[in-house]
Amino acid sequence: MYYNSEILKIHSNSETDQTNVGKKLSEVPFHQAFAGAGYRHKRFSTFVSANFIGKQWADEQNTLGLERYSTVDIDIQAQLYKGLYVNALVQNIFNRIYIDKKGGLCPGRFIELELGYRF
Predict the structure, then answer these.
(1) CA distances (Å), 49 to each of 21, 22, 41, 68, 110, in order?
(2) Which of 65, 73, 82, 119 has the largest CB neighbor count within 10 A?
(3) Considering Cα of 54, then 60, then 62, then 67, what sign does the dihedral take?
(4) Which tens digit of pLDDT belongs to each residue from 9-34?
(5) 0.85 exceeded by the pTM?
(6) How far is CA 95 from the centre of its chain?
(7) Residue 1's pLDDT band (cuts 50, 70, 90)
(8) What is the sign, positive or negative, of the torsion defined by CA atoms of 92, 96, 101, 107?
(9) Are strands 84-91 and 110-117 parallel, antiparallel or unpaired?
């Protein structure tokens, strides 16, 4: 996807508000893409996804730019016995460190394990 989020007009008489005309919206990446593929078997399933976030502005004045980044995630689920299952989700497999939309440092690789039962 391609986004062109430019401020064209501001309904305000304040001179300071008018300085944002012609600027890009903050926290809106110029490019964004997602792709995923899954496989399902009787007792096993997996899903792999790739996410791309393009360059974006972190502030309204368009002075602080955030670099583009991409992540790869995987979700694996296995049926153990009747309704009992185990699920593992790994986000950001390659531990890519980046600054997120809110200007914070990402947590890096994130692993979530789940043991459950479906009735």
Answers:
(1) 37, 35, 18, 17, 14
(2) 73
(3) negative
(4) 776 666 556 567 777 887 788 889 99
(5) no
(6) 14
(7) low
(8) positive
(9) antiparallel
pLDDT digit string (tens) for 59-116?
888 888 888 999 999 999 999 988 899 999 999 999 999 887 777 888 899 999 999 9
Residue type, 88: A
Strands (DSSP E) found in 9-109 = 32-40, 44-53, 56-57, 65-66, 69-81, 84-91
Residues in the chain: 119
CA dist., res. 28 & res. 58, Å (int): 9
Closest alpha carbon to 24 in 52, 64, 53: 64
